Amino acid sequence: MNTLLFVVIILTASILQTSTGFGFSILATPFLLLLFEPTEAIQMNLLLSLVISIALIRKVRKDIDFGIVKRFVIGSGIGLPIGIIIFMLIDINKLKLVISLIILALTILLILKFRMKQGKKRDLAVGGLSGALTTSIGMPGPPLLLYFSGTDTQKEKLRGTTLAFYMFIYLISLVIQVIFAGTNKTVWVSSAAALPLVFIGLYVGQLLFKRINQQIFRIFTYIILLFTGVYLFIESLL
User: Fold this and answer.
1) What is each CA distance from 45 to 74, 83, 109, 202, in whole angstroms?
2) What per-residue confidence (pLDDT) applies to 230?
3) Beta-carbon neighbour count of residue 230 at 10 Å?
4) Distance CA 110, CA 147 (A)
5) What is the Cα–Cα distance from 120 to 234, expressed in whole angstroms?
6) Rounded to an integer, what distance in angstroms lies between the CA atom of residue 184 and that of residue 187?
């Protein structure tokens, strides 16, 4: 049963990440926590997400906004160490509760057509938040997703820019996690076993991306954000 659940988690999350540019950590991390210890689940998520980003980067290169990626990276330089401090010292359940309420509130605003303008200072702030969430709970996606949805970013630019940023943020976060939280054989053996599923997901996700229009893409975004917010809220109370 655990093996079947593992296959479904990795395959579904890989398809979602490839077809949208986000979603692996959002979908995989909650369910991997059912099968692995928190540190193992977070490190597996970081490692497999990094593989997906590297595999796709050539295909999405033309869609990347390098200016935004640069500002995200600069902002994350502040957020990454803050996130690992939170992971090591602070009650993660309280953090998840606060994050879940913020995600749900902002998602509702987006559904109600709240929009914002993209700006350099906001890029830096979003990068910082994403960095902090990556090293603390292994989920860099929500700040990026909320930001790009609020600025009505086209799906091609969203996917390309987030994947480029993920390639940096996942690598640095994985190194920080291994140094400060340690690692074990389970992380690497299970990640290696998941690679065939990831590559199947890459193929299927690419096919889906070509068939998803902007409206459906936006609906996908809202569903994933609502799922993330509800999941983190429930988990924080358990």
Assistant:
1) 23, 16, 29, 15
2) 87
3) 13
4) 10
5) 34
6) 6
pLDDT at 1: 57
Q: Residue 91: left if φ>0, alpha if ψ -120 to 50, beta else—which one?
A: beta
Q: Quick one: how far is CA 93 from the chain centroid?
A: 19
**According to the model, what pLDDT value does residue 68 have?**
95
Closest CA relative to residue 16, chosen from 61, 44, 48, 41: 48
Residue environment code for 84-100, b if the CB has 16+ CB neighbours within 10 A, otherwise e: bebbeeeeeeebbbebb
pLDDT at 123: 94
What integer pLDDT is reported at residue 238 of this predicted model? Answer: 76
Token digits for 40? 């193992």
Q: What share of the chain is helix, strand, coil (3-state, %, to 5)?
A: 85, 0, 15
Report d(CA 126, CA 133) in Å as an integer.
11
Of the candidates 43, 26, 198, the residue with the CA atom closest to the CA atom of residue 100: 26
Per the CB < 8 A criterion, the answer to whether 134 and 77 are in contact is: no
Under-50 pLDDT residues of the chain: none
Q: Are 169 and 134 in contact (CB under 8 A)?
A: yes
In 24-91, alpha helices (H):
24-32, 38-60, 66-89
User: Which residue type is seen at 33?
Assistant: L
Q: What is the pLDDT of residue 72?
A: 95
Total-model pTM: 0.79
Of 116, 87, 117, 61, which is closest to residue 177 (Cα–Cα)? 87
Residue 98, CB-side half-sphere exposure with 13 Å CA sphere: 8
* Cα(99)–Cα(211) distance, integer angstroms: 32
